[in-house]
Model the fold of this input.
Amino acid sequence: MALLYTAFSIIAHTGIPNTDKSKKIQRTIPAFFSIIATSVCVMSAGIPIISKIIILITLYLTFTTYQYLSNNKNILPEFCHGTHIFSAIAIITTLNNPSILNLQNLTIISTLLFASVAINLCIRIKFGKTNKQHIIYLILATTSTLVTLIYTENIATFIIISSLIPLAYHTLYKLLSKHRLHSIAITGFSIYPIAWLATLITYQNFFSNPHISIHLATTLIPLTHLILIKYNKLPHLKAIKPILIIATATLITIFQLKYMNHWQLTLALTAMIYHLLDQKENKILTAIAATLFTISITAITTITPVASTAKPLMVNLIALIPLTTYFIRKYTPSENSTSTSTYYPSIQRTLAILASLALWIASSAHLIRFHDSSALSIVWALVGLIILSIGFLSKDITFRTMAIIILGCTLAHVFTIDVWKLNALLRIMSFITLGIVLLIVGYLYCRKPDQPTNHKP
Done:
């Protein structure tokens, strides 16, 4: 019956020209019955199920290849279009028989599906057709590949390859971008969350320390992707740049939390790098940097226990990082140095506030943790004086404002707490220190009156 209907279909297509659209139905009916009869023939054959699936997909590939090679003079157009039924039956059969799925069978199916993708793309490019069959086969082939990776039972292989697939797809998209094959880029990017989720799951004691290289590789892959976009190697994918920035920052942060002994310091240094990279008014980088530094200073001062010999040094280093970043940005030429934009000054103000708070919090935490907190007012007064001096040297009113706030808190602390709780000697020392600092502040303001803020390097 399959051969008979196929013969009828060939006769109909040979006898009725493709240009005669009034008789299109007469060509379509025998082609449809021929495809159905062939499918029934294959499915009722006494052969293994995987063989039936391979035969159906191979039949589809055969007629699709014929459609491509016919140079747009296909005498069996309805028949070739209808052979998508073969692949549909093959996919349904595969889903209904999960017992046949193993690494070898899945590899064969994935290969055939990618061949289908390639032929459909070639047809669309060669003939300029608007059909979207390649999208379906691309999704099926990609899904089959991911399932195949799962069947390898090697989570490292799954993570590495699934992280590389988006990069491969986006590179292919660049080569074919003039044909507007956006589905390749979209499908590629949709795999990233799967790879990232698998990576995050493995951090839950799934991997031991020897697998640090795998986590490092999966952390750096989206960073590589981001660099390619930045340097116009993948210029058509700038829309996903913010997502890649956030994902990269998240993966790098988690990697440090897992493997770095002094992750508080490395997070602060990472925040510094993000601030220095922020030369094009990228608010995402600034937000990430501020978040990382907040986590770092909070952890080092309140949460994470560190050996007493290392803790003071780390506290001091972390407290100095935002101040160092401020001066590097201030005295290093950048694209925004001569810009009239308000973004650069606002970032410098933010860094000045962070630097002031970091010095204040770090000195207070160090004193409370390792010494008696009785001298807290004295330390605050000295910190306020230091920050005020920095404000005069940098000609930045933000530092001077923060210094006045700290000195105000010192004054309130002396008159509300120290005067009642400290012994006579410490109470006298607090008042004397505060008085001396206030005299110095007054002298500095008299000798050097307030000047307009100068944020430009």
Notes: Confidence is low (pLDDT under 50) at residues 304-310, 336-340, 448-457. The two ends are 85 Å apart (CA to CA). Residues 425 and 431 are 10 Å apart (CA to CA). Residues 373-457 form one domain.
